[in-house]
Design goal:
The protein is mostly helical. The protein has 8 helices and 5 strands. Strands 4-3-5 form a 3-stranded parallel sheet, with helices on one face. The chain has a two-stranded antiparallel sheet with strand order 1-2. The longest helix has 15 residues. The chain starts with 5 loop residues before the first helix and ends with a helix.
């Protein structure tokens, strides 16, 4: 079902319904039918908002079960962008953040920076007391995973199927050694 045309589909359906011979006690208006159809659609095609209104307006949010790819040149902020989306989504959904490009500690420190604005988390030589953040961290339903543990695409797929998170973010997926070999762009396209 095309998300771009959902309103047109609902309106077309509603205009085809005959509302004759309905008594006053059993009146069903077009608005309540539209709400009902939208709820069925949402249940089957759960839309997960990224927390970025412009992005959500352009892609209608992330559609559960679909793959959305963010591609850009190196050092342009893709990881921070994905971490921000993870932060927003993980308040209401279960998220797995699988990192291939960076050490797990580095990703976790970046995430802690995002939720605390404490620049010491970005200084990887600094010793930082995490204790004050424990209650804040519990608000986020996110698991950080080192992607280097997966040797095959099947292992990764089985892990995702077994644990069934709402959203999986793979940072640096083009680096997974079981995808197409070639330039970074060819690897990214293969993902």
């Amino acid at each position: 079902l095309d998300l771009d045309n959902i309103e047109d589909i609902i309106n077309s359906f509603l205009s085809s319904i005959q509302f004759s011979n309905i008594d006053e006690q059993h009146v069903v208006d077009q608005e309540s039918i539209a709400e009902f159809l939208q709820s069925i659609f949402n249940a089957q095609h759960q839309v997960i908002k990224t927390g970025y209104p412009t992005l959500d307006a352009n892609i209608q949010g992330l559609l559960k079960g679909n793959i959305t790819t963010f591609v850009g040149r190196m050092k342009q902020g893709k990881t921070f962008y994905l971490l921000n989306i993870t932060k927003n989504i993980s308040l209401n959904h279960r998220v797995f953040f699988i990192t291939i490009e960076m050490a797990l500690e580095e990703i976790i420190r970046r995430f802690l920076y995002l939720i605390s604005s404490d620049l010491r988390f970005l200084d990887y030589t600094a010793q930082v007391d995490y204790t004050p953040l424990l209650d804040e961290v519990k608000r986020y339903n996110v698991k950080f995973i080192n992607g280097a543990v997966f040797n095959t695409a099947n292992e990764l797929a089985m892990f995702i199927r077994t644990h069934a998170p709402d959203v999986v973010v793979i940072d640096g997926a083009y680096l997974l050694n079981f995808f197409h070999k070639g330039t970074e762009w060819e690897k990214a396209k293969a993902v």
